[in-house]
Amino acid sequence: MISIAKKEFYQFFSSLTGYITIILFLLVNALYLFVLKDSNVFDYGYATLASFFDLAPWVFIFLLPALGMRSFADEFKSGTFETLKTSPLTKWQIVFGKYLAIIAVIIIALIPTVLYVITIQSLSTGGIDTGAITGSYIGLFLLASVFAAITTWCSSLTSNAVIAFLLSSFACIILYFGFSAISKLPVFTGNADYYIEMLGIDFHYQSISRGVLDTRDIIYFFSVIFIFLFATQKNLHKK
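Request: output the structure for the sequence above.
Response:
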C-alpha cells in the first residue's frame, strides 16, 4: 500500500500537475484574502480568515478532481491495471494507497496557508479566534478528504481522465451544497428540510468551522469517505 502511495505521490510531482495544483490553490486564496475588493481582510475591518474558509472548498471542488482524475483512469487506459491486479496487494490496499497519495498532496497544500494565520495575527491588535480557526482547518481537511474519495471513485468508473474530472466535480458540487439547496424548496420547509440539509457536506463543514468538534460531524465525514472508497474497491472487482 505504501509503495502505491509513494508511486502516486512522486507521479504527481514528476510533472507540473502537482505543482500547479498547489500554486493555484495558494494564489487564488491569497488574492481573495488580501487583494480583491470586499473579500479581503482589510475591508472586513477585523482579523478573520472567514473568506478563506468560504472560498477554499470551491477551489478544492475543481482542483482535487484535476489532481486525482488519473488515479485509475490512466491505469485502465494504458493497460497497467492488469499488471497492478497481479501484484501481491489487495484491492483495498491499491485503493487506499492511491487515496493516501492525494491526502499527502492536500496536506502539503494546506501547510503554507498557516502563513495567512501568521500574517493576520501580526496585523491584528486584538488577536484572532484560534479555536474557530483550528476547527475550520480540521473541517477543511475532512472536506478535502471527502472530495479526494469522490475523485478516486469517479476515476475508477472510466478510462477517460477528462470524464473522471467532470464526474468528480459534479459529484463534489452536489454533495457540497446540493442537499442544502434542495432543503430550501417550499415543499420541504418546516418538514424534512433540516434532515435533508444534514445529508450535505456543507452542513457539517460549517458546524466544525464554528470551533466545536461534534462527534456526529466526524462520523459523517468518515462514513462518506468509507462509502466512496468501498464503492471504488467494488468497481475494481468488476474490472
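Residues 130-155 form the longest helix (26 residues).
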